[in-house]
Design a protein that fits this description.
The structure is a homodimer of 305-residue chains.
Chain A: H1 2-12, E1 16-18, H2 29-39, H3 43-61, E2 67-68, H4 73-76, H5 79-95, E3 99-106, H6 110-120, E4 124-126, E5 129-131, E6 138-141, H7 147-160, E7 163-169, H8 176-179, E8 182-183, E9 186-187, H9 188-201, E10 211-215, H10 220-229, E11 235-237, E12 261-265, H11 267-270, H12 286-304
Parallel strand pairs in A: 1-2, 1-12, 2-3, 3-6, 6-7, 7-10, 10-11, 11-12
Antiparallel strand pairs in A: 4-5, 8-9
Helix pairs in contact in A: 2-3, 3-5, 3-12, 6-7
Chain lengths: 305, 305
Amino acid sequence: MINKLVENIRKTKAPIVVGLDPMLDYVPKHVQKKAFQEYGETLEGAAEAIWQFNKAIVDQTYDLIPAVKPQIAMYEQFGLPGLAAFAKTVDYCKEKGLVVIGDIKRGDIGSTSAAYAVGHLGRVQVGSKSCRPFDEDFVTVNPYLGSDGVNPFLKVCKEEKKGIFVLVKTSNPSSGEFQDQLVDGKPLYELVGEKVAAWGEELMGDEYSYVGAVVGATYPEMGKILRKVMPKAYILVPGYGAQGGKGKDLAHFFNEDGLGAIVNSSRGIIAAYKQEKYERYGEEAFAEASRAAVKEMITDIQGAL
Amino acid sequence: MINKLVENIRKTKAPIVVGLDPMLDYVPKHVQKKAFQEYGETLEGAAEAIWQFNKAIVDQTYDLIPAVKPQIAMYEQFGLPGLAAFAKTVDYCKEKGLVVIGDIKRGDIGSTSAAYAVGHLGRVQVGSKSCRPFDEDFVTVNPYLGSDGVNPFLKVCKEEKKGIFVLVKTSNPSSGEFQDQLVDGKPLYELVGEKVAAWGEELMGDEYSYVGAVVGATYPEMGKILRKVMPKAYILVPGYGAQGGKGKDLAHFFNEDGLGAIVNSSRGIIAAYKQEKYERYGEEAFAEASRAAVKEMITDIQGAL
């Protein structure tokens, strides 16, 4: 799947990923109204609204982008109907040829991580049958529990030729509280980065490993170091746009081949119609505003490389 | 809710929690067969099997125990039907008067953690209505992203008088890989423990804080230190029984009042019928074997205190 991701990036010349994180506030009123008329102001209604919102944005942008990253929390907050909308979104994006990165940030002790791994990337055995519960292409993984929380994901990645992005240095303001702590003079995130490189050695695609890393756009200097620590890891870079990261900060996350990183934008794309810059589209044409924002993001990032 | 947990522990004299982590392998063949006859060898069939398994165990043990801890991964691996069984299990246990600790180990950047917090502990706004998606009493939280990943949970805990258990030192063999790293001569888990104590100060119940910690039974010496670092935090102690922790290792996790810790056992209780010790019950009476295992666990722990 890492090969497909690289291929999609080469084809679109766009090392970006659209974060499908549909807060209900982002969904235009007319989409909400229609969903609530059908299902009421219920979890089902909210789930229908975010699904219709996603679908419109995907339809308007899929030809420009290599991948999407649905953040499962934004669906899980609407309970079972929300999670059904997550599954529908994953399936729809895959039908459209997009690589789907499930932003699930799971991670637990071995036997439990194994359950997450088969649930999201693999097949679960039920009697004599095996079923694919969610079936994303990649997922994000939290490393706090160490190797035996990550190994079950590696096992499934190997079987399914899928991948993970391990949280190394997250984009949020307080990420340094634990991640930046110095261990023998070296920050913890670097130690995690070294592990990512080691975990990924056995799981190589043509050019890059199945095992990638999450490093926030908001910390470009750390990105520069981590790029060297994990030369074969694709870096998923959140924090561009609304969180403060800019195109010029991103060059260091990439390798000299122009590959090796994929930059996420969520709010900046999916709620573009709310920005002054795109307000000419109006709420009705929110998905066209997203398309314009994707084009601008691609230009910004291409300019920085 | 921390007050209810303490009250339930006092009433039952049992500082234990039953981990409802129903791997399909634990579910007796006759329960699986019945579920598969009704729903086929499908995710729905698996979900029905684990729900019937849980229900039988809860019916046989609820009068002896204060709380249960369903591990959501064991449900999530069966996709949407599995998560429906999780929700049904949560609701059923609450009806039986049990405190429900959702072992979800979520944690993300602020706005995303907020979605998990309302989804699992609070209410989510849908138009003019507010809905309760999963509605556990406590959840477990991963601290790797720092304070701004935890704060949204604290906010919801305050509003709802609910609680969290933050991962401090997990029970698995490789937990030390990152958690034990020395930061200024002090292990990272101690730093996290200090944060737990600080986060909990503003959220006090009668005797203990809404903010607890997870510390594995497999690391009793670290439990001793962490008990002092977080005197008002309830410690959720996994790793007893099948993972190797023993009753005598547990004394240090408790305060002098005999409170302050709650010990989890999953496999040791729910799959008790598979142990030589309880094989006289046979597969048909698996839930009675669980009841016997609960009684023995209570005796073992009371003896250690």
